[in-house]
Amino acid sequence: MAECARCDRKLVIGSLTEWKTGVFLELAGRSLEWDESWRLAAAFGSSETRKAWEKAFGKTCLKIPFSEDAYLVRWEDMKFFGVLFD
Question: What is the pTM of this model?
Answer without folding.
Answer: 0.69
